[in-house]
Amino acid sequence: MTDAVRTHSLLKRYGPQVAVAGVDLVVPAGSFAGLVGPNGAGKTTTLSMVTGLLRPDGGRAEVGGLDVWRDQLQVKACIGVLPEGLRLFERLSGRELLLYCGRLRGIPRADVERRAGELLRVMDLEDAAGKLVVDYSTGMRKKIGLAAALLHNPAVLFLDEPFEGVDPVSASTLTEVLRRYTASGSTVIFSSHVMDLVERLCDWVSVMSGGRIVAQGPIGEVRGGHSLNEAFLRLVGGPRTGGDAGLSWLGAQPAGPAAPRGPAVQEPVVPQEPAVRQEEA
Ligand SMILES: Nc1ncnc2c1ncn2[C@@H]1O[C@H](COP(=O)(O)OP(=O)(O)OP(=O)(O)O)[C@@H](O)[C@H]1O
Prior knowledge:
By secondary structure, the chain is of the alpha/beta class. 32% of the residues lie in helices and 22% in strands. Helix 3 crosses helix 4.
């Protein structure tokens, strides 16, 4: 079976810095895949290149066997993207945004209206459907962004930190929607820092560190009998704390009367005579 996503030695430099250093990302079709890695590992840069938002300096990216940069229109027609720092049409209401995105995708009006209504209901945005997107909260923006990315029923869905800022009730709704989506054969790949979530949702995981893939495969194999969090820390190197980490000053308070340890005592407030204004005197 063709992989949903496959990259070959994907490379991106920002000046002298190599952000993505020859990445061979593989995501089998129908997977619920997680892309994890420490801050600055290159996840967003990789996803941006795979979704045609950022041109690579080297290597190739394929989605469903199509070259992302050579077959741009075909690839864009079959993917949905919730990018980092999502920019939305702020002066449209949530419903208008979905109708607009649906029409841009070439979906017949009646179908767009039906799908938009269903997505708004499932995402619990019905009450906010008439509100301008500029007035949406962070979590509401994620949800309307995800609805827009799902509207055309893409074969592969790319989500950069989809659960960030989303409340637990909405997160479980999103989870259900995504589970249903992958159960019917479509593919989700999402980046996240929340290992518990990745462990719970994903059947496939790719771990990045320093611009490279350091482990990749079925989640059980990558975990190797440990929790994903433990496996992750082993793969990317544990926390940088210890005797020589500095911060010896942090938490150490100077001794003496200037450093009260008990509850702070409120100074009594002495009522002041009202000030007499010059012209009243
Ligand atoms: N536009 C840019 N200009 C310069 N450097 C950049 C740019 N975008 C990313 N980088 C650098 O490339 C590296 C990879 O960044 P990227 O955003 O892909 O990491 P990430 O894994 O998504 O991180 P995070 O988990 O913190 O979101 C980082 O060192 C970052 O500073």
